[in-house]
Specification:
Length: 425
C-alpha cells in the first residue's frame, strides 16, 4: 500500500464519519475531532500495512493541506459573525490579541528555553506556532451560522470573543513565526538583535497593513458582486461554492502582494457580511465553507492520530509533554485572565474565555511553514512531537468539556434573561 492509497482510505473514512457523527455527538461531552484522532490512532495500531504521514518527510504536503483547511475555516468564521465591527463592540477581541497572544508567546518561549534547553529561535518558533487559538477545531465554542433577519440579538460574548480572536490571531501570529526564522538565520543557536528593525517594518507593519487593506478591498468588491451588481448578482443564484472562490481570491492576491493572507481572508469574510448583513446568502456561503472545513479536518486529524501512535509519542519527552500541558492549563488561562482585567463581563464568562484557547490545525501549518523557511532541521522531530501532543491534549481536554460548560453558560444566561423579563413585567 502506498501513501496515496492510505490517503484515499483516510479521506473516505473521514468523509463518511464527518457526515455521520455530527448528530451523534451533539450535546455530548466529546467532539468530532476527538473521534477522528482516536480513529486514526486505532487504525495505526492495527496489524495492517497502513502508511503513516511523516510531517518532516512530507512537510510540503502537510503545509498546503493545513493551509487550505485554515483559510476555509477563517472564511466560515468571518461570515458567521453577526456583530458589526467596532472598537467597543470588539473590545474583548482586542484585549486577547494585544495582551493574551504576546503573553502566551513569551510564556511558552521562556518555558521552551528553560525546560527543553532549546536555543531562543527554536523556543520562539514553537511558542509562535502554538500561541494562536484555532478556528478549525473550536466548533463547540464558536458562534453559530449567520442569522438573517432584523430582530437578531447580540452574540453571546464568550462565543464571539473566541471566534473573532481565532479569526484574527491566526494571521497575527505569523510575524512571530517569521521572527523565529529571522533569529535562527541571523544568530543560529545564539541571540542577536540585528534582525529586529527589518522585522518590525517588513514583517509586522507592512505585511499586516497589506493583509488588512487587501481584505477590505477584496471584501467590498465581492460584496458588490454578491449583492449590488445589476448584471451578475451572485446572491440570486444561491451557489455555495463561491465561498471557495472568495477564500482563494483573497488569500492568493494578498500573498502575491506580500501581505498576510490569513488576516485578509477573515477581514474579507467580515466585509462581505457587512455588505448586506441580513441576506440569507450568508447562510449558504457559511454552510458550504463549514462542509469543506469538516472534510479537511476529518482527514487531517485522522492522519495526525496515526502519526502520534506510530512516531510522535515515541519522540516526545516528558519535558515536551509538560510544556504542552502547561500551555493549556496554565499559560493560556493566566494570559486570558490578564487580558480581561477590567473587562465588563461576568466572572464565569471571563474564566471560560480564558480557558478555551483551543490549539489545532493552525499550529500544524505554522510549524510546517517555518521548517521550510529556517534552519530548524535538527529540532524538527521534537518540535513536531510537542506540537502534535499539544493539539492532542487540547482536543481531548477542550472537546470533553466544551459542550457541558457552554451549555451551562447558556442555561444561566437564559435564566437571567427570564428573570429580567419577569421583573420588568
Amino acid at each position: 500500500m502506498t501513501l496515496a492509497h492510505g490517503i484515499y482510505m483516510a479521506a473516505g473514512i473521514g468523509i463518511l464519519m464527518a457526515a455521520v457523527l455530527p448528530p451523534l455527538v451533539r450535546r455530548r461531552p466529546f467532539s468530532m475531532p476527538m473521534v477522528f484522532l482516536v480513529a486514526g490512532a486505532a487504525i495505526a495500531l492495527l496489524p495492517l500495512d497502513v502508511p503513516v504521514v511523516d510531517p518532516v518527510r512530507d512537510r510540503v504536503w502537510v503545509e498546503h493541506v493545513t493551509e487550505v483547511c485554515v483559510i476555509v475555516s477563517l472564511m466560515g468564521a468571518g461570515l458567521a459573525i453577526d456583530r458589526p465591527f467596532g472598537w467597543r463592540a470588539w473590545a474583548g477581541t482586542w484585549r486577547f490579541l494585544g495582551l493574551a497572544l504576546p503573553l502566551t508567546i513569551a510564556g511558552v518561549a521562556l518555558l521552551g528555553t528553560w525546560l527543553m534547553g532549546w536555543p531562543p529561535a527554536v523556543a520562539l518558533l514553537l511558542a509562535a506556532a502554538l500561541a494562536p487559538t484555532d478556528p478549525v477545531l473550536a466548533a463547540e465554542v464558536r458562534v453559530g451560522e449567520p442569522i438573517s433577519g432584523e430582530d437578531e440579538e447580540d452574540e453571546e460574548e464568550v462565543r464571539f470573543t473566541l471566534t473573532s480572536e481565532a479569526g484574527l490571531n491566526d494571521g497575527l501570529a505569523l510575524p512571530f513565526v517569521l521572527a523565529a526564522v529571522a533569529l535562527a538565520t541571523t544568530a543560529g543557536e545564539g541571540w542577536s538583535a540585528d534582525w529586529i528593525g527589518h522585522w518590525l517594518v517588513a514583517d509586522v507593519l507592512l505585511r499586516a497593513t497589506v493583509g488588512l487593506v487587501a481584505g477590505v478591498l477584496v471584501g467590498r468588491m465581492l460584496g458588490w458582486l454578491f449583492f449590488r451588481s445589476r448584471h451578475v448578482r451572485l446572491s440570486q443564484q444561491m451557489e455555495g461554492f463561491t465561498a471557495l472562490g472568495a477564500t482563494f481570491t483573497a488569500y492568493g492576491l494578498t500573498e502575491l502582494a506580500h501581505g498576510y493572507g490569513f488576516l485578509a481572508v477573515f477581514v474579507t469574510a467580515c466585509t462581505i457580511r457587512a455588505a448586506e448583513r441580513n441576506h440569507g446568502y450568508h447562510q449558504v456561503l457559511h454552510g458550504f465553507s463549514e462542509q469543506i472545513e469538516r472534510l479537511l479536518t476529518a482527514v487531517l486529524l485522522f492522519l495526525l492520530g496515526g502519526y502520534l501512535v506510530a512516531d510522535g509519542l515515541s519522540v516526545l519527552s516528558w519535558q515536551g509533554a509538560l510544556l504542552g500541558v502547561t500551555l493549556i492549563l496554565v499559560i493560556r488561562p493566566v494570559a486570558g485572565v490578564a487580558a480581561q482585567l477590567g473587562f465588563p463581563a461576568g466572572r464565569r464568562e471571563r474564566a471560560v474565555t480564558a480557558l478555551f484557547g483551543i490549539r489545532g490545525i493552525g499550529s500544524l501549518f505554522y510549524l510546517a511553514y517555518a521548517l521550510g523557511k529556517g534552519p530548524f532541521t535538527r529540532y524538527a522531530d521534537e518540535l513536531w512531537a510537542v506540537a502534535a501532543f499539544t493539539v492532542l491534549a487540547s482536543v481531548l481536554l477542550h472537546g470533553a468539556t466544551a459542550t457541558p460548560v457552554i451549555r451551562r453558560l447558556d442555561q444561566r444566561r437564559s435564566r437571567v434573561a427570564q428573570g429580567r423579563s419577569g421583573g420588568s413585567s
